[in-house]
Each structure stands twice: as C-alpha cells, then as structure tokens.
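Lab manual, section 2.4: Encoding a predicted structure.

Procedure: take the sequence of the chain (108 residues), apply the prediction step described in section 2.3, and record the output as structure tokens. A sample record is shown.
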Amino acid sequence: MQYIQSNYQALARKAAEQQWSHLDYLAQLVEREFTTREMRSIERRISCQCPAIRDRSRCRLHGGLSPGAPRGDQNGNYVDGHYTAEAVRERRWAKSLLDTFGKDKPHG
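Recorded output:
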C-alpha cells in the first residue's frame, strides 16, 4: 500500500480535474499499486548477482541444493576408483553370483 499512501492525494486532484468517477479513481489507485509492487518484485529477483549452479538457472542461494561434487578424476579426493558407483555395482554383482552359484557345490 506504499504507492497508495504516498500518491492518493495527487491522484485525487487529477481525478477531480478530469471528473473521474469514484470507481475510476479507485481502479487507478489499485492498478498503480499493483504495477509498483510488480516492478519491485522483479527488481528483487534480478538483484542477486551470484553465478548460476551447473545445470541450473539459479544460484546456490536461491535455486536449491548443489548438484554435488565432481565425478572421478575431477574430484580432488579421488584415489583409485574403488568406491565409484560402477565399482560398487560390479562388486555387488559378483557377490550375488557367488551367493547364487557358490552354495550349490559341496566343499571338499
């Protein structure tokens, strides 16, 4: 209601000079208030100058969670690939084969 508080008198004088109806006067007040709010909203959204997150259109502050650490050799903590998703899947697959086929044969 900031626009209405600061401009209602000037707009009332203009409405009286141009012989607007009360409804036209109120409609102009509300329309201008709405326009002012919309412009301020756009300014607030544009004001953030942080860079956008990779594969997203917004920054880390306004766009949600980070997409995560780099994969493979690009990650500074990468050593040998023992715990990569592919290696873990391969070990689970091998274990499932051992569990499935290893129990049928007697030992000895």
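Check your result against the sample. The chain is about 55% helix and 0% strand.
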